[in-house]
What we know:
Blueprint: E1 2-7, E2 15-20, H1 27-49, E3 55-60, H2 63-69, H3 81-92, E4 97-102, H4 110-123, E5 135-139, H5 142-153
Parallel strand pairs: 2-5, 3-4
Antiparallel strand pairs: 1-2
Amino acid sequence: AGWSAIFMPESGKPSVWYGHLEHPSTNNHGELLGIMASFSMGLLFQNSIQKPIHKLLITSDSQYAIGSLDPASGWNGAKNLDLIGLGMETRSKIHANIELKWVKGHKGNEGNELADKFAGYGRKKFVVTNDSRYNVRYFESRVSIVDQIRLIINS
Length: 155
């Protein structure tokens, strides 16, 4: 499986984090990690400007991942609790109004289409090295992105 997250600040170059998830990872793992990486990029941005950001809008085509990482949803899943717990911890560090919004996949949403493209690259272990439109970072495994998220929330 592959995953990706796109961070599009109001000004500046978008950041793309993406990676490969080794077997026995599932699409749900990838969807959760995409939102968690978005939380992490938001937290890094917040820390870089040294003030709270007002709003962080995260879109996803996964109702499961949104429901799992949005306390207001009332979702109560029993799977992937390790990722959900880390995601909620990451979310709690961001001083912003966070909105998780579902978008229909494969329907022309720019961010979602770009995320799908990079998730496909991650699934194939294709490392993008020369796309000047984005700040790109590839993570070779689930462990590498989870370790990065833990490093960000503990810094």
